[in-house]
Amino acid sequence: MKNSFLKNIVAVASLALLPALAFAQEKATLAISSVKATPSLAASVKSPTQVDTQHSTADREKTESVVLDTKLELNRIIESLDGQLIDRINATRKFDVLSRSDLKDVIAEQDLGASGNVDAKTAAKAGKLTGAKYLLVATVDDFQDYFERAIFEGTGRVATKRVFRFSIVGKIYDSTTGKLLESANFQTGNDAFKQIQQERNYSVKSAELSDEMMVAIARNMAEKIATHVADVIFPAKVLIKRDNTVTINRGEGGGVAEGDTFNVFALGEDLIDPDTKESLGREEVKVGKVKISQVNPKTSMATILEDTGIDKGAVLRKAQ
């Protein structure tokens, strides 16, 4: 009798755990290669160089000599981006992130990050040997940080402008087939650079980026990449619709913020390429627009702005 009672307790407990286990199994495993610069970029960035900058004081033009070490800046940003990317991908709560050391051991003979040249065979091998469903390869293909001087004719005045540019190519592979699912370019430049500096109040002492500033740049780029990866593989969806509000399956770390607007699409028929017979996804028909009103740890609330058929399961795409 006692054994029977215990068996019933165990059975009930097991049933209670099934939903949680089922939910956990929905996560996909994502392998992330080490972030590296292309060989040509790594060779082109400069070691410490002295630059003369000019700016106006109360009564005269002042010349200041500063030193820029773009090679050190690039390496520091990449080092930070390596960790930030794992953190931001994990924060989406959509993936189980594979240890980078495991990935390195599996395909040690191929330097994925150095060239970004991953073919279907390499991607499929990574998936087969590691169990990763997806593979993300991020390669820095552009980095510029220098001063540009302009002389105004007639006045002889000289202005100095800082030019900052950072670009990464991100590729997402389905490791089980080796198919390239997405290739996108992520950029940040002068405007984003200034915004980060102003919002975070980071200093740029003697024209050199502080460690905090370089980490902030890496975090900003990592958030862009992580959000895009999640959007490609697991686009945001409507969980519940009540009156003039919807709940979506994206929360903190999921690339949503209060005030963001999203177009809402109903999913239609599967789209099959008549020539290759390849699946091109499903038809998406716009059925409305929403605006994020509240971001929670795992979900977000959005106010409906337009509605011609929003329902549970509808897909959200950020409005441009």
Structural description of this entry:
There is one protein chain. The chain is globular and about 60 Å long. It has eight helices and 14 strands. Strands 1, 2, 5, 6, 7 and 8 form a six-stranded mixed beta sheet that branches. A six-stranded antiparallel beta sheet has the order 9-10-13-12-11-14, with no helix packed on it. It starts with a helix and ends with a strand. It is 34% helix and 38% strand. It has two domains: 28-233, Rossmann fold; 238-318, Beta Barrel (Thrombin, subunit H), CATH 2.40.10. A hairpin with a 6-residue loop joins β6 and β7. The model is unreliable at 5-25, 54-59, 109-115 and 202-207 (pLDDT under 50). It has 320 residues and is of the alpha+beta class.
Keywords:
320 residues, alpha+beta, Rossmann fold, Thrombin, subunit H, 6-stranded antiparallel sheet, 8 helices, 14 strands, globular
In short:
With 320 residues, this protein is of the alpha+beta class.
- CATH fold name of the largest domain, please? Rossmann fold
Give the beta-strand count: 14
* Class derived from helix and strand content: alpha+beta
> Which residues form runs of ≥5 with pLDDT under 50?
5-25, 54-59, 109-115, 202-207
Rg, alpha carbons = 25 Å
Quote the distance from N terminus to C terminus: 65 Å
Under CATH at level 1, the class of the largest domain stands as Alpha Beta
Q: Secondary-structure element order, as H and E?
A: HEEHEEHEHHHEEEHHEEEEEE
What is the total number of structural domains? 2
Strand content bin: 35-45%
Shape: globular
Question: Which architecture of the largest domain per CATH?
Answer: 3-Layer(aba) Sandwich
The largest sheet is: 6 strands, mixed
Total of DSSP H or I helical runs spanning 4+ residues: 8
Mean pLDDT: 76
How much helical structure, as a percent, in the residues?
Answer: 25-40%
